[in-house]
Specification:
By secondary structure, the chain is α+β, with helices and mostly antiparallel strands. The chain contains eight helices and 17 strands. The protein folds into two domains: 119 residues, D-amino Acid Aminotransferase, Chain A, domain 1; 159 residues, D-amino Acid Aminotransferase, Chain A, domain 2. Helix 6 packs across helix 8. The two termini are 24 Å apart. The structure holds ligand PPE. The site of ligand PPE has 16 residues, from helix 6 and strand 14.
């Protein structure tokens, strides 16, 4: 099932993709008042399995809580809806997008009178930064756009409005011939990519910016930190100056859509050997082995999608 096809869960009912629409006066369209998630379902031993479902659902409700948005479903119901969306569409490996937003009722900056609408879509989404990116790596520029100061937009909320900043970063990077952008935070320290967290490897140790550097607390980032420990690679959160990217032996990005992608150039400076480095490769392969069911899922990161599709209330 590709983007634009199949069924979308829309507040308890499955509707055809083309009918999952909303009014032009929807609050979220005018004011960015939405929160969303991105999950991946992998084909593990031939069966679909969703990666870290509970953690993504938790972050979805966290994002909404920050904006005083009441999602009109219990977290358990949303988990079920996500699983059902994969089943109903007969998907194996796919990307899943839950979204909740302020709907159509009034205009103005008090969003509370508007009903909260919730939906879940799923489709096949290949390698986010291109088929070759996982092996050959990508080029990154440090964005001229910064991540928001802590008292402006809450970075810990995966809110639609935050992605206006990401879109500026991404377009600027592409226009300059780069694959992706990494932004600095308000204080000038490294923050994150337009849709990924960032990691620096130097002297066999992994470093990544902390929550206070205006990052989204990535779930793939968390997998990386755990896998690094499993592999005996020291990994810590550190504020990083821009030039730490240049002096790294390896740089890589992590995200649900992006997975784990080596960065081979930053601002046209070659990083390390200019190829995917050994630490990146070890983390990448440990991650892919688990999600694809080729290594034991010790921490129960995968939730199997089993049984026939059923109606979700
Ligand atoms: N930072 C940002 C800004 C971000 O958008 C993502 C995910 C991450 C970090 C990594 O978080 P996690 O997916 O939990 O490891 N970006 C999502 C949206 C990408 C898109 O283009 O849309 C994603 O990867 O699903």
């Amino acid at each position: 099932m590709s983007f634009g096809q199949g069924k979308i869960w829309h507040d308890g009912k499955f509707v055809d993709w083309k009918n999952a629409t909303c009014h032009v006066m929807t609050h979220a369209i005018h004011y960015g008042s939405s929160v969303f998630e991105g999950l991946r379902c992998y084909e593990a031993k031939g069966k679909p399995a969703i990666l870290r479902l509970r953690d993504h659902v938790r972050r979805f409700y966290d994002s909404a809580k920050i904006y005083r948005m009441e999602i009109p479903h219990a977290p358990e119901a949303l988990e079920a809806a996500i699983i059902e969306t994969v089943k109903v569409n007969g998907l194996k490996s796919c990307y899943i997008r839950p979204v909740a937003f302020r709907g159509m009722k009034v205009m103005g900056l008090n969003p509370r009178p508007c009903p909260v609408v919730c939906a879940v879509a799923a489709w096949s989404w290949g390698r986010y930064l291109g088929e070759e990116s996982m092996v050959n790596g990508v080029s990154v520029r440090v964005s001229s756009w910064r991540r928001p100061a802590p008292d402006t937009f809450p970075a810990l909320s995966k809110a639609g409005g935050n992605y206006l900043n990401s879109q500026l970063m991404k377009m600027e990077a592409l226009d300059g011939g780069f694959d992706e952008a990494v932004a600095l935070d308000h204080y000038g320290y490294v923050s994150e990519g337009s849709g990924e967290n960032v990691f620096v490897v130097r002297g066999g140790e992994i470093h990544t910016p902390p929550w206070s550097s205006a990052i989204l607390p990535g779930i793939t980032r968390d997998c990386v930190m755990i896998l690094a420990k499993d592999l005996g690679i020291p990994a810590r959160e550190t504020t990083l100056p821009r030039e730490a990217l240049y002096l790294a032996d390896e740089v890589f990005l992590s995200g649900t859509a992006a997975e784990i992608v080596p960065v081979t150039r930053v601002d046209n400076i070659v990083i390390g050997s200019g190829r995917r480095g050994p630490v990146t490769e070890r983390i990448q392969s440990a991650f892919l082995r688990i999600v694809e069911g080729r290594a034991p899922d010790k921490r129960r990161w995968l939730r199997a999608v089993v049984g026939p599709a059923q109606a979700v209330a």
